């Protein structure tokens, strides 16, 4: 009986530990990671028409959709996850054999991370996302793990709860 109770406690304890996020989440307020940047996006929080719909992270996702040809113009990057972004997201998800629910979650962010390139190491890093006809997005990750993105000449932190790019106004 004692060994069964101990085994149950270890299993429950292990489940409790495994539920902790590896790097970041939307509740942290910013796209964030530690260690190798290539695995930072697979544990980000959901982004949709109802979750963080007006934010720098919405602009980040729109820039990815633009780079992949799912949004036609950089003018479509307005920091608002509205109906056009939702439709483009579903198209992007279908093209990547994902559930086309229009919600950018761990699987969608994780799939997008396969198109990141840059150099490994510490310090401020420049990371690129690109895949469609020479379109690309430039990101940064600084020593504290926060991600930023260039939109035009502006470099802004990728906040979930704030829209600070000029295009957001």
Task: Present the secondary structure layout.
Elements: H1 2-18, H2 56-67, H3 83-95, H4 106-112, E1 116-118, E2 125-132, E3 135-141, E4 147-151, E5 154-157
Antiparallel strand pairs: 1-2, 2-3, 3-4, 4-5
Give a description of the structure.
Residues 1-24 have low confidence and may be disordered. This protein has one domain (23-168). It has 169 residues and is α+β, with helices and mostly antiparallel strands. The radius of gyration is 18 Å and the shape is globular. Strands 1-2-3-4-5 form a five-stranded antiparallel β-sheet, covered by helices on one side. The N and C termini lie far apart (64 Å). The chain contains four helices and five strands; from the N terminus they run ααααβββββ.
Give me the strand/helix succession.
HHHHEEEEE
Could you tell me the mean pLDDT?
84
Question: What's the number of structural domains?
Answer: 1
Low-pLDDT runs of 5+ residues are 1-24
Main beta sheet: 5 strands, antiparallel
Helical stretch tally: 4
Radius of gyration: 18 Å
Quick tags:
disordered N terminus; five-stranded antiparallel β-sheet; 169 residues; alpha+beta
Can you give me a brief rundown of this structure?
This protein is of the alpha+beta class and 169 residues long.
């Amino acid at each position: 009986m004692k060994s069964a109770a101990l085994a149950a406690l270890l299993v429950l304890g292990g489940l409790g530990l495994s539920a902790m996020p590896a790097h970041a989440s939307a509740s942290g307020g910013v796209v964030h990671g530690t260690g190798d940047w290539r695995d930072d996006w697979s544990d980000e929080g959901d982004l949709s028409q109802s979750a963080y719909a007006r934010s720098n992270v919405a602009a980040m996702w729109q820039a990815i959709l633009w780079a992949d040809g799912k949004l036609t113009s950089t003018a479509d990057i307005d920091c608002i996850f509205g109906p056009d972004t939702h439709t483009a997201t579903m198209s992007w998800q279908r093209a990547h054999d994902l559930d086309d629910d229009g919600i950018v979650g761990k699987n969608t962010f994780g799939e997008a991370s396969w198109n990141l390139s840059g150099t490994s190491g510490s310090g401020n890093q420049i990371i690129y996302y690109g895949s469609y006809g020479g379109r690309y997005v430039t990101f940064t990750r600084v020593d504290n793990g926060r991600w930023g993105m260039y939109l035009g000449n502006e470099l802004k932190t990728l906040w979930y709860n704030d829209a600070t790019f000029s295009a957001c106004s």
